[in-house]
Amino acid sequence: MLIVQTAVEFSLRTTTYVIGEDTDILVLLCYHAQSDSKKIFLRSDTKQAKPKHLWDIHKTQSLLTTTTCELLPFLHAVTGCDTTSKIYGVSKPAALKLLSTNKIFQEVARSFVTSQSRQDVVTHGEKVVMMLLAGDPHQNLDVLRYEKFSSRVMTSTSCIQVQTLPPTSAATALHSLRVFLQMQLWTGKTTLIPEDWGWQLKNGAYIPVKTDIPPAPEKLLKVVHCNYKVNCDSKRCSCRKHGLECSSGCGTCRGISCTNSGTADYEDI
């Protein structure tokens, strides 16, 4: 953020070049750069062997439109950045296209951005994720998850990978809180306390709060268990293979003494 603020300040007086590869910088320059400033460019590192890129920020803003640029920090955070998770099956180009062409999605996104409470963030966040997954924004994510699971069970002959299903409402609520926090920090509008927005402080470092809702009903989870004896750190562990944490039904680890356990120390995973 400091890099972008400095670049925007310099651009008020002279043509400015920013050297970097980070998508965050491009997104924030498109959001913060002023239309009446001098030229401002983002250039890839000339020391890198890969092809060089040069972004004319004013031209990029014009191509994207003002509405899209205003919502870019939100879109970047909700689709996954350094501090937020990526939603399986949702690419940034597809999300950008949806934002650029779908007026309803723009309205839902703007409602999220202007939320006045945690509950507003959670409510609008679920609608955002529903639309990114091509679902009905008035439907519940848990319903969509169940429908997708049922459909795949009937049509697939292989195991259903849990991570490919839509996220639960509970997991999406925490994701939405972290997205809102990151977006607010990027846009410089407020200073929020991370512990109130999906993070917890552990051993001097912030780690994301995990949902306390299981990924599937208990009866279904009991069907999947492992008897792996070497720390459950590979796909030979059937729980890990299916995208699930080990549980008390597992033969050796009992869900408490392996790297695939929800009770394992974060630093050991």
3D structure, described in words:
By secondary structure, the chain is mainly alpha-helical. It folds into 3 domains: about 1-65, no CATH class; about 65-210, no CATH class; about 215-269, no CATH class. The chain is built from 11 helices and 5 strands. It has helices at about 1-10, 25-30, 55-65, 65-80, 90-100, 105-115, 120-130, 140-155, 170-185, 220, 240; strands at about 15-20, 40-45, 55, 200, 205-210. It has a 3-stranded mixed sheet. It has a two-stranded antiparallel ribbon with strand order 4-5. α2 links the parallel β1 (about 15-20) and β2. α4 (about 65-80) packs across α9 (about 170-185). The two termini are about 30 Å apart. The model is unreliable at about 265-269 (pLDDT under 50).
Number of helices: 11
Over the alpha carbons, how many angstroms does the gyration radius reach?
Answer: 21 Å
Give the terminus-to-terminus CA distance.
30 Å
Helical residues, percent: 40-55%
**Total domain count:** 3
Kindly summarize this structure in a few lines.
44% of the residues lie in helices and 7% in strands. It has 269 residues and is mainly alpha-helical. The strands form two sheets. A three-stranded mixed β-sheet has the order 1-2-3. A two-stranded antiparallel ribbon has the order 4-5.
